[in-house]
Design goal:
This protein is an alpha/beta fold. About 20% of the residues lie in helices and about 40% in strands. The longest helix is centred in the first third of the chain and has 14 residues, at about 65-80.
Amino acid sequence: MTVFLYPNPMKDADLSVTRSAAALLRGYGAEVLMAQEFSAAMGQDAVCCPQAEGIAAADLVVTVGGDGTLLRAAAECLDAGKPVLGINLGRTGFLATCEVAQMPANFRRLVDGDYHLQKRALLRAESSGGWQAFALNDVVLYSRSRLHPMDYAVYCDGICVGKFRSDGVILATPTGSTAYSLSAGGPILDVTASVFVLTAICPHGGQAAPLVFSDKRRMTIVSSAANRDTVLASADSRISCTLAPGDSIEIFTAEQALSYVVFDEAEQFRAVETKLTRR
């Protein structure tokens, strides 16, 4: 097995966890690849090469950081068709579910092939201005200035679901349902469910219930022409575009899916129990 290690130097400043991961994997018989920029720091602990080449040559990618690190790696893993596993150095770790203490046991299972691959759905967003993006967690729209709420209409397959005023709106995948959407009052979705959820952020005029849609649906959100400010749309908090009053954005389930390494099929609910209900 060949593993590409994808560390976040902001989380693993001295690369000590990355070195431990590399040593464990090599000890179990795996070849370890890393990006060229880490060659001086890693020495003989890993074979360093251009990142795109390393990911293409690997059987899977292991990120070392937090959920944000896995989200950054996800786009490259998706393009290369490689599964991903996240080591958690962050605060919560709903995506990067493998804790540092679990690395010896989980890496042994990884090299032995004792793991499962879950297909994680992504959302695709396309604005009327030509912007396009994929999101593993969510697509979020909000007023650019944050000083005024945004007015918008939501359509499902061309049928108006309703007109809303709120500080923003989140469309989240099942994977992303435990992120921003949950903080805004959305439900926790089973990651294997073929759905996504729309959650309004601080809706005005009373509560707006989150809406769960089949992944076969195609959503359109239209920024009201009466909005005082432009609206920003972002995918996984990274890639963003500006919508002028009257512009629209379509959001639907992407054809591609990310392969995600799990050691138990219901691993998500262990994370919910240990990282939410026990807090």
